[in-house]
Amino acid sequence: MRGFWPHIDDLARCLPLAEQAFVIEEHLKAEPEMLKNYVYHSTRQLKLYADLVEKGVPERDALYCVPRNVRVRTLESYDAINALSLELPLRLCTECEPERRHTSELKAKELRELLPEMDFLLEPKCSLGYCTEGNFCGQIKRLNPNYNVELHQSLAKLIADAGL
Question: How far apart are CA 110 and CA 26, in angstroms?
Answer without folding.
Answer: 27
